[in-house]
Amino acid sequence: MVLSALVAAVLSPVFCGGDFAGAEFSGVDGKPIIPFRDPSKKATVLIYVLDGCPIARKYTPEINRIYREFSPRSVGMYLVFAEPDIKPDTVKAMTRDFGLLPRAFIDRTLARQSKIKAVPTAVLYDSKGVVRYQGRIDDRFPALGVQREPRRRDLHIAITQLMAGKRITVQRTETIGCLLP
Q1: Predicted confidence band at 20 (pLDDT cuts at 50, 70, 90)?
Q2: Dist CA 162 CA 132 (whole Å)
Q3: Is residue 65 classed exposed, middle or buried when 0-12, 13-18 and 19+ CB atoms within 10 A define those classes?
Q4: Which contacts (CB < 8 Å, 24+ apart) does range 115-118 have?
Q5: Tens of pLDDT, residues 116-136
Q6: Packing angle, helices 60-70 and 154-163, rounded to 10
Q7: Is residue 156 one of the residues assigned to a domain?
Q8: What is the domain range of residue 97?
């Protein structure tokens, strides 16, 4: 089932509130996902997406690039489908058809508690579960209906800075994409 999405530009606020340290989710592959309790991970990235969002779909190559670069360096990366009635088989088909590499799970509560308004929104957590970056993956969509070659790879930069022990220079960016239903 492909859900239609309302496209809008929304400023995604920095995560505020909620304790997800022990959160466990059921991956669409049937295996548990415990993103914040893995001591081998130096960081965790959650990328919120919708099945029917054309903007999110255009990020498949960049999501896979980031996954290939950072997962061997102890960065966990997961796709979070936040549609209210999406089924695991739909998510499995989408991740397979688009060749998405990160594991996926369905959860609306986490998106709501993290104040996610539009997708694709990336949230980078450090090893203690503290949000270090929240917002767009890159700036390829500077406005609705406008696509260009990215000039700034915000998520990549934030992960690189975190892994190097540096201060993340840009901690929040505007997400241009589809509104969460």
Answers
A1: low
A2: 8
A3: middle
A4: 115/12, 115/13, 115/15, 115/16, 116/12, 116/48, 116/82, 116/180, 117/10, 117/11, 117/12, 117/175, 117/179, 117/180, 118/8, 118/9, 118/10, 118/12, 118/175, 118/176, 118/177, 118/178, 118/179, 118/180
A5: 999 999 999 999 889 999 999
A6: 10
A7: yes
A8: 10-17+39-179
pTM: 0.88
**DSSP 8-state code for residue 120:** S
Q: Largest Cα–Cα distance of the chain, in whole Å?
A: 42
Where do the DSSP E strands lie in the chain?
7-11, 25-26, 32-33, 43-49, 75-81, 103-106, 118-119, 121-126, 131-135, 174-179
Tokens at 102, concatenated: 């990160």
The three-state DSSP-derived secondary structure of 74-115 is CEEEEEEECCCCCCHHHHHHHHHHHCCCCEEEECCHHHHHCC
Place of tokens 């892994």: 163
- Residue 99 within a domain: yes
SS3 content of the chain, % helix, strand, coil (to 5): 25, 30, 50
* Count of domains forming the chain: 1
Beta bridge partners of 143: 146
Q: How far apart are CA 131 and CA 124, in angstroms?
A: 6
Taking only the tens place, the pLDDT of each residue in 3-15 is 223 333 333 333 3
